[in-house]
Specification:
By secondary structure, the chain is mainly β. It has one helix at 154-178, and strands spanning 3-5, 13-14, 19-20, 25-32, 37-38, 43-53, 58-59, 64-66, 80-82, 87-88, 93-95, 98-99, 103-105, 110-111, 116-117, 121-123, 128-129, 134-135, 139-143, 146-151. The model has no long low-confidence stretch (mean pLDDT 95). This is Gamma carbonic anhydrase family protein.
Length: 181
């Protein structure tokens, strides 16, 4: 079982059919939606704000998820909100940002506080999304800092759903191995 820790009496919450690798750590206000997966060595620390992960979303190996504290100048702080059917690649840093639905975040990308990624977006590997940047729906973004490269093709848009579905199927294989029927 994963390392699931309470913070100030708040426990992580898992939906139905969620797979969390035993080497991952979930702390505090972390909510994981149905059919989502958290892979090896992920750290999700919902201590000073909340982390919400949607349905059929996968957070891959070595990713770090964190938030920004509430303060007088920022009354809501920056929670981390991730939508449905999102693929977060290996070694990604998500900090106090909002991701819509059907997004692919490439390996080793960083998305910073207050950034908003609208639906149907691909972010290239190694990209840096600066604080408060808004990535418009339907585009490929690459670079450090990230720049809009071109509109997504129909094939790429379909791949966003396929990627999420593939991880649901993989998660189910792991789930059966860990929790035999």
């Amino acid at each position: 079982m994963a390392d699931s820790r309470s913070y100030r009496g708040i426990e992580p919450w898992l939906g139905e059919r969620v797979y969390v690798d035993p080497s991952s750590v979930l702390v505090g206000a972390v909510e994981v939606g149905n059919d989502s997966s958290i892979w090896p060595l992920v750290a999700a620390r919902g201590d000073v704000n909340k982390i919400v992960i949607g349905e059929r979303t996968n957070i891959q190996d070595g990713s770090v998820l964190h938030v920004t504290r509430k303060s007088p100048s920022l009354p809501e702080g920056h929670p981390l909100i991730i939508g449905d059917d999102v693929t977060v690649g290996h070694h990604v840093m998500l900090h106090g940002c909002r991701l819509g639905h059907r997004i692919l975040v490439g390996m080793s990308a960083t998305i910073m506080d207050g950034a908003v990624v609208e639906d149907d977006v691909i972010i290239g590997a190694g990209s840096l999304v600066p604080p408060s940047k808004v990535l418009e729906s339907g585009y490929l973004y690459v670079g450090s800092p990230v720049q809009q490269k071109r509109p997504l093709t129909d094939k790429e848009r379909e791949f966003l759903r396929v990627s999420a579905s593939n991880y649901v199927a993989l998660k189910d294989e792991y789930f059966i191995d860990v929790h035999p029927i």
